[in-house]
């Protein structure tokens, strides 16, 4: 079979001559999202592929005015085989949606007499945007209440900005943050803390719906309490003191908690707390919805500051006595001002004191590192320090005489004079000292009781200048014991003066033991002791070797008393005044109204009265001028040959007694009390013979 022959015939119909042919080339734009950046303009091309120029009319149909067109109205003719162009550009800020327009070119020319149209469709799509964190502030107003106080909380509000076209807010949520517990919900929080605030929005013209858009962080702080808290205790606070807290100036209902040394755990509640340990204590007041307030104080430990001692009952001993600490009381003094007796736990150094020999012993009491001392004195005689007396030890240098606390005589005098009225002192001389003497009262303190003694009975106070060694004034009472008062042979006044003429109270001097010796009174009376409106009591000791114009040993003047119950007045001289014949009372001279000498014991011997006048005499005792003399016991030696020469009192008349007044021997109803009723057993007259009386009777 022969091959098939297929013939394809193409028939071309050429465009008729003199015919224009117009076409619009397509223009496209990329889709954008709302809020887009305006696209660049594009070119619209109208092409004439015909052989004849076309007369053109261009129109656009842009119902939504979404595009901007270049000048196309000037295009009226398009030459054959050529093209014309103009631009088209989507407008900025179009809403979401599909924006369209139609370009129409209508033309005629040549053989085309019926208008032909060519069209092109334009399309520009704007998608809706989806809200996010970056777009929130541009489209929504968030209320400015993101910082609030717990007692006045308001809701956070979020609203679309006017003209933004943003979707409506459908819900606002709160969720705890930064350690704050609060599950995500629309419930508004009421407690202090931090909360993330988010919101949901509905779909809108240009926006999609969205959830969990951030509105910020809500911070709720506690309100400030209107009052103030304080711990009202003042001054230094110690353990055991109740701490009192107070909240003032506010009406909130508060509670109190206590903390120690910054610890987080509370140790107590309530407005009062009593600490049992030292430390820093803080009280905190709190109220619901309010920030707490605090106040702190330091509580100090109670510590021992010092110790003091009283006693022991006996601190002065004679050689061989048994030492005892009975009556020793140790007292603790604490830094909070309290004291407490210490019954045990202290030590004594030394534990015991030897009384085998005379001397001072310092005993140290030690308790918890604190010390106090007392001094034990052992002497050859028994000191009689008055109960309650303040003891001052005196030496010729500070700390001298083996007594660490000893001071100078001048310091002791200043101490006594600086004390309160009614002072009670004991000055114990621990080694021989020298003083200059005085022309006025030795001690200026009224109502003074002073015990002046030697530590061992062998100490001496020597007068190195002129004046009186002791001048005792009104209201002062001085007792001498175990001490030698050594006078000055160049002196010109009495050695010890008792003068109660000025001031109130009796001026009194008591001599328990010791010696008053070696003073030259010159033209003055009372070489050893002068008494004027005062009282002198001699219980022991010796007044010896003194010289004065009258009363070589003792001179008693107006309104004065002298009671001698022991001791001796020996070897004193009444020398008389220069250029006169006076010189009465070698041992004792009484002169003046109410001058009373009572002798209940002791010895007066070896004294001299050198006066040669008709009324001068009394080698032992001279009692004239309205004075009186009474003796119940004692001896006044005369100058009989049978009397040892050393014991003889001598005078031009009345070697034992010269009297122009009352002189009696007798007894007292109470022999120990010279103020008890007196019974006279006879008068005494001027005599050179020894007067010895026992129990009121002459022997």
What is this structure, in a nutshell?
By secondary structure, this protein is mainly beta.
Secondary-structure topology with pairs:
Elements: E1 22-24, E2 32-33, E3 42-48, E4 54-61, E5 67-69, E6 77-78, E7 82-90, E8 97-109, E9 112-127, H1 133-139, E10 140-142, E11 147-149, E12 158-160, E13 169-177, E14 193-201, E15 210-221, E16 223-224, E17 228-231, E18 237-238, E19 243-248, E20 255-260, E21 268-269, E22 272-273, E23 279-286, E24 290-291, E25 293-300, E26 304-310, E27 316-318, E28 329-334, E29 339-342, E30 347-349, E31 359-367, E32 370-379, E33 390-394, H2 409-417, E34 424-429, E35 433-435, E36 448-454, E37 459-463, E38 470-472, E39 476-481, E40 483-486, E41 496-499, E42 507-511, E43 515-517, E44 529-532, E45 534-538, E46 542-544, E47 547-548, E48 554-556, E49 561-564, E50 568-570, E51 573-574, E52 588-591, E53 596-599, E54 603-605, E55 608-609, E56 621-624, E57 628-631, E58 634-636, E59 650-651, E60 657-659, E61 662-668, E62 678-683, E63 691-694, E64 697-698
Parallel strand pairs: 2-9, 11-15, 16-24, 18-25, 27-32, 33-34, 34-36, 35-37, 36-39, 37-40, 38-41, 39-42, 40-43, 41-44, 42-45, 43-46, 44-48, 45-49, 46-50, 47-51, 48-52, 49-53, 50-54, 51-55, 52-56, 53-57, 54-58, 55-59, 56-60, 57-61
Antiparallel strand pairs: 1-3, 3-7, 4-6, 4-8, 5-7, 8-9, 10-12, 13-14, 14-15, 17-19, 19-22, 20-21, 20-23, 23-25, 26-28, 28-29, 30-31, 31-32, 58-63, 61-62, 63-64
């Amino acid at each position: 079979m022969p091959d098939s022959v297929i013939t394809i015939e193409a028939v071309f119909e050429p465009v008729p001559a003199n015919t224009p042919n117009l076409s619009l080339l397509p223009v496209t734009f990329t889709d954008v999202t709302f809020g887009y950046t305006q696209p660049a303009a594009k070119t619209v091309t109208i092409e004439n592929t015909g052989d004849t120029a076309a007369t053109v009319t261009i129109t656009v149909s842009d119902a939504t005015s979404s595009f901007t067109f270049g000048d196309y109205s000037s295009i009226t003719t398009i030459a054959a085989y050529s093209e014309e162009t103009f631009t088209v550009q989507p407008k900025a800020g179009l809403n979401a949606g599909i924006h369209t327009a139609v370009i129409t070119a209508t033309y005629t020319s040549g053989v085309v007499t019926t208008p032909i149209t060519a069209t092109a469709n334009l399309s520009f799509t704007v998608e809706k945007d989806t809200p996010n964190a970056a777009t929130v502030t541009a489209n929504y107003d968030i209320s400015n209440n993101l910082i609030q106080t717990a007692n006045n909380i308001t809701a956070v509000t979020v609203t679309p900005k006017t003209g933004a076209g943003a979707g409506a807010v459908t819900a606002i949520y709160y969720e705890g943050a930064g350690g704050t517990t609060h599950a995500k919900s629309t419930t508004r929080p009421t407690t202090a803390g931090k909360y993330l605030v988010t919101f949901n929005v509905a779909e809108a013209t240009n926006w999609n719906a969205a959830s969990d858009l951030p509105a910020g962080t809500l911070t709720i702080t506690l309100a400030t309490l209107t009052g103030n808290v304080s711990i009202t205790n003042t001054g230094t606070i110690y353990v055991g003191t109740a701490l009192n807290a107070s909240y003032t100036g506010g009406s909130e209902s508060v509670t109190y908690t206590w903390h120690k040394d910054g610890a987080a755990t509370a140790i107590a509640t309530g407005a009062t707390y009593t600490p049992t340990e030292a430390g820093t204590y803080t009280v905190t007041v709190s109220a619901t919805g309010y920030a707490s307030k605090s106040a702190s104080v330091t509580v100090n430990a109670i510590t021992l500051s010092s110790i003091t001692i009283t006693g022991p009952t006996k601190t002065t001993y004679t050689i061989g006595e048994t030492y005892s600490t009975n009556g020793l009381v140790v007292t603790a003094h604490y830094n909070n001002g309290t004291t407490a007796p210490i019954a045990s736990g202290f030590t004594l150094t030394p534990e015991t004191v030897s009384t085998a020999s005379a001397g001072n012993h310092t005993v140290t009491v030690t308790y918890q590192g604190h010390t106090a001392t007392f001094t034990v004195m052992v002497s050859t005689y028994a000191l009689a320090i008055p109960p309650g007396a303040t003891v001052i030890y005196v030496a010729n240098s500070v700390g001298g005489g083996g007594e660490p606390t000893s001071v100078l005589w001048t310091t002791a005098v200043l101490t006594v004079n600086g004390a309160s009225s009614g002072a009670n002192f004991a000055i114990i001389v621990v080694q021989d000292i020298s003083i200059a003497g005085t022309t006025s009262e030795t001690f200026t303190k009224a109502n003074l009781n002073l015990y002046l003694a030697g530590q061992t009975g062998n100490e001496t106070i020597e007068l190195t200048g002129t004046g009186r060694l002791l001048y005792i004034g009104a209201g002062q009472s001085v007792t001498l014991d175990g001490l030698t008062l050594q006078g000055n042979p160049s002196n010109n006044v009495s050695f010890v003066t008792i003068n109660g003429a000025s001031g109130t109270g009796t001026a009194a001097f008591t001599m328990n033991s010791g010696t008053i010796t070696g003073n030259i009174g010159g033209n003055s009376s009372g070489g050893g002791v002068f008494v004027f409106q005062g009282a002198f009591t001699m219980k022991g000791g010796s007044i010896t070797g003194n010289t004065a114009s009258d009363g070589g040993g003792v001179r008693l003047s107006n309104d004065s008393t002298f009671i001698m119950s022991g001791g001796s007045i020996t070897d004193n001289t009444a020398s008389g005044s220069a250029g006169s014949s006076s010189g009465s009372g070698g041992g004792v001279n009484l002169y003046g109204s109410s001058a009373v000498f009572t002798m209940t014991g002791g010895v007066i011997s070896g004294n001299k009265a050198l006066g040669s006048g008709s009324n001068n005499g009394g080698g032992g005792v001279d009692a004239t001028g309205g004075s009186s003399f009474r003796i119940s016991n004692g001896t006044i030696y005369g100058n009989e040959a049978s009397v040892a020469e050393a014991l003889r009192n001598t005078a031009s008349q009345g070697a034992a007694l010269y009297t122009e007044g009352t002189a009696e021997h007798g007894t007292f109803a109470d022999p120990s009390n010279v103020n008890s009723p007196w019974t006279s057993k006879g008068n005494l007259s001027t005599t050179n013979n020894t007067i010895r009386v026992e129990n009121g009777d002459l022997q």
